[in-house]
Write a structure and sequence with these properties.
The complex is a heterodimer of chains A (469) and B (95). Chain A has 18 helices and six strands. Chain A is of the alpha/beta class. Chain A has three domains: 1-77; 88-273, no CATH class; 286-468, TPP-binding domain (Rossmann fold). In chain B, helix 2 packs antiparallel against helix 4. The chains are: A alpha/beta (469), B mainly alpha (95).
Chain lengths: 469, 95
C-alpha cells in the first residue's frame, strides 16, 4: 500500500481516538465514544496489516488470537470491585508491549542495520532507550501495584528510609547506559539489556514503598506511563498514530494523578517518596476523643429519625463495597424515594480505590448517575440536609482535616457531613481508617452510630422503615 | 531531524489536546476513562505488528519479542474496550 494512504488512515484512527475521548465527557455519549475509539483501533490495525512492511502473517494471527481470547475472558470475568487490579494489569501489559517493541527494534537494528524498516528514524536509539525504560518501569511497577491491590503482598509501605536514594541511583545508572547506547553507533547489547533489567528493578522499588491508601495515585500515574511508553515506541518507528495516542493517554493519566493528589492534599513527590518518613507530632488518643460521647443506635431508632425528612445524603466509602452493601443501600434509597424523600450520593474523589471507582460500583447497583454528586456539589448542600448516612467511609468525613492544624490530614478536602442536621454512621467498630486517626465526627451531638456489618445494618434499617410505614 | 521536530510538535499538541479534553470528563466517568484510554494505549499493537511481521525468518529473537508484544497489546486493546463498554452500559438510565 502507498505509504501516504497508510498515513492518512493513521490520521483517521487518531481522530477517532480524540472523538472517542470527547464522547467520554458525557454519560449519554460515552458508549458511542468508546465504540468510535475501538473502530479507530481496528482501522489502524487493518491498515498496518495491509502495509507492505508486514510479510509473515501466521505469527501475527496466533498472537492476536491468543491476546483476544485472554482479553475477552478478563473483561467478562472481572468484578467491579476488582477494576483497580484489572487496570493495573492492563497498564502493565501496555508497558510490556512497548518494551517488547523497543527490544525488537533494537535487535533488528543491531543485526539488520539502521535501514531496517522497524527502526526507520535517526532518533531511534534515544526513543528505544526511553521506550525500554518507561515500558519496563510500567510493567514491573504495575505488577507490584496489582500484588498490593490483590493482597498477594502487604498493602502497607514496604522498604527502608533511604529508598529514594536507591531509586535515584538506579535512574542515574540507567541514563548513563542510555547515553552510552545512543553515542555508540552500533549500539551495545549489554547496555540495552542492562537498561531493561535495571528499569524493571526500578519499577519494583518505586511502587513497593507506597501504601495502600495511595494506590489510586499510583494506578493513574502508571496509566500515564503506559501512554508515554507507547508514544516513545512511536518515535522509534516514526509512526504518528502511536505518538498522538500515546500523548493523549499520557495526558489523561497525568490529569487523573493530579486530581487524586489534590483530593488528598498531597504533592505527587510526597506520595511517591514521602510515605516512609517517620510520623511527627504526638499521636491523638482515641479514648479522649470518644469517651462517653459516642451514641450507639438501633435500626428502629434510626428509622424514626428518617420519618419526617426531606433530604437524605448517602456517603459511601470502599467499606460499603467490601461489605457488598451497594444493592442494600440502593434499596434503602428506593424506599426513601418512594416516600418522596430526595436522596443523593456524595462521592469523595478517593472514595474508591481508583478515580471514579465508587461511581462504577454504585452504577452496577443501578444507582442513577444523576444522583451521584461530587464533593463540591455535595458540600454546598449539607447544611440543607436532614440526615446523612455514612457507610464504610471514615477519613474523608473527618472534621480534623478542617479544624485541627496539628493533624496529619489537615488541609485535606473532606465531605462536611457534620454540617447536616444529623449524621448516621454505619460502621463495624470505632477503628480508624487508613490515616490511623480517631474521627471526632463520631462523638458529635448530632451523630448516631450504627455498629455492625454494613449490609445487614442497612437491610435492617430498610425493614424497620417498611414496618413503620 | 526535520521529521523529528514535526513529530515532536505533534506530540506536544496532542498532549495539550488531551489535557483540554480530559479535564472535561466528569468524575463519574473517570474509571471508564482510565480503562478506555488504556485500550487506546494498546495502539502499540501497530508497532508490534511491524516488528513481528517484517523481520526475515532468521531473526528469531526479533520475532519472539514482536510476538510477545502483539499478545500483550492485543489483551490491552480487547480487554480495555470490552470492560469499558461493560461499565458504560451500567451508567445508562434506569427505566
Amino acid at each position: 500500500m502507498n505509504p501516504t494512504i497508510v498515513d492518512l488512515f493513521y490520521l483517521v484512527a487518531a481522530l477517532l481516538f480524540v472523538a472517542g475521548i470527547k464522547g467520554l465527557t458525557r454519560p449519554r455519549t460515552a458508549v458511542l465514544g468508546n465504540t468510535l475509539a475501538a473502530v479507530g483501533m481496528l482501522i489502524a490495525v487493518v491498515v498496518t496489516l495491509l502495509d507492505k512492511h508486514v510479510i509473515s502473517y501466521s505469527l501475527i494471527a496466533t498472537g492476536i488470537g491468543l491476546g483476544a481470547v485472554i482479553g475477552a475472558v478478563m473483561a467478562r470475568r472481572v468484578k467491579m470491585t476488582g477494576m483497580p487490579q484489572m487496570v493495573a494489569v492492563l497498564n502493565g501489559f501496555g508497558g510490556g508491549a512497548s518494551l517488547g517493541v523497543a527490544a525488537a527494534s533494537f535487535f533488528s537494528m543491531t543485526t539488520l542495520g539502521v535501514e531496517s524498516p522497524v527502526a526507520a528514524q535517526t532518533v531511534a536509539p534515544v526513543a528505544m532507550a526511553l521506550a525500554a525504560l518507561i515500558g519496563a518501569v510500567t510493567l514491573s511497577g504495575s505488577a507490584v501495584a496489582f500484588a498490593k491491590l490483590q493482597e498477594l503482598i502487604s498493602g502497607r509501605a514496604i522498604g527502608f528510609n533511604g529508598m529514594k536514594y536507591l531509586n535515584l541511583a538506579l535512574l542515574v545508572v540507567i541514563l548513563i547506559l542510555g547515553y552510552n547506547l545512543v553515542v555508540n553507533d552500533s549500539g551495545s547489547t549489554v547496555s540495552f539489556v542492562a537498561i531493561v533489567a535495571l528499569a524493571l528493578l526500578l519499577g519494583v522499588t518505586l511502587v513497593l514503598p507506597i501504601g495502600g491508601a495511595d494506590m489510586p495515585v499510583v494506578i493513574a500515574l502508571l496509566n500515564s506511563y503506559s501512554g508515554i511508553a507507547a508514544a516513545a515506541a512511536g518515535f522509534i518507528m516514526g509512526n504518528t498514530v502511536l505518538i498522538v495516542s500515546g500523548a493523549l493517554v499520557g495526558a489523561s493519566g497525568i490529569i487523573l494523578t493530579r486530581i487524586m493528589c489534590v483530593a488528598m492534599n498531597r504533592s505527587l513527590l510526597n506520595v511517591l517518596f514521602g510515605t516512609l518518613a517517620p510520623s511527627s507530632g504526638e499521636t491523638i488518643d482515641a479514648d479522649e476523643v470518644y469517651a462517653g460521647k459516642v451514641k450507639s443506635s438501633s435500626a428502629d431508632e434510626i428509622s424514626m429519625l428518617l420519618e419526617d425528612v426531606e433530604r437524605v445524603v448517602i456517603v459511601p466509602g470502599f467499606g460499603m463495597a467490601m461489605a457488598q452493601a451497594q444493592h442494600a443501600v440502593r434499596e434503602l434509597a428506593d424506599t426513601l424515594q418512594g416516600r418522596g424523600v430526595l436522596v443523593e450520593y456524595a462521592i469523595h474523589p478517593v472514595a474508591g480505590r481508583m478515580p471514579g471507582h465508587m461511581n462504577v460500583l454504585l452504577a452496577e447497583a443501578e444507582v442513577d448517575y444523576e444522583q451521584m454528586k461530587t464533593m463540591e456539589q455535595a458540600n454546598a448542600q449539607f447544611s440543607k440536609t436532614d440526615v446523612v448516612i455514612v457507610i464504610g467511609a471514615n477519613d474523608v468525613t473527618n472534621p480534623m482535616a478542617r479544624e485541627d492544624k496539628g493533624s496529619p490530614i489537615y488541609g485535606m478536602p473532606i465531605l462536611n457531613v457534620d454540617h447536616a442536621k444529623c449524621v448516621v454512621v454505619v460502621k463495624r467498630s470505632l477503628s480508624p481508617g487508613f490515616a490511623g486517626l480517631p474521627n471526632p465526627l463520631f462523638a458529635n451531638d448530632n451523630t448516631f452510630m450504627m455498629f455492625g456489618d454494613g449490609k445487614k445494618a442497612i437491610m435492617d434499617l430498610t425493614a424497620a422503615l417498611h414496618e413503620t410505614a | 531531524m526535520e521529521l523529528f521536530i514535526m513529530q515532536l510538535s505533534l506530540f506536544a499538541l496532542a498532549v495539550f489536546l488531551g489535557v483540554e479534553l480530559i479535564t472535561k470528563v466528569p468524575p463519574t466517568l473517570h474509571t471508564p476513562l482510565m480503562s478506555g484510554s488504556n485500550a487506546i494505549s494498546g495502539i502499540t499493537l501497530v508497532g508490534a505488528l511491524v516488528a513481528a511481521g517484517s523481520g526475515d525468518v532468521s531473526e528469531l529473537l526479533v520475532q519472539i519479542l514482536g510476538f510477545v508484544a502483539i499478545v500483550l497489546a492485543t489483551i490491552n486493546v480487547i480487554a480495555g474496550f470490552l470492560v469499558t463498554h461493560r461499565m458504560l452500559c451500567m451508567f445508562k438510565r434506569r427505566s
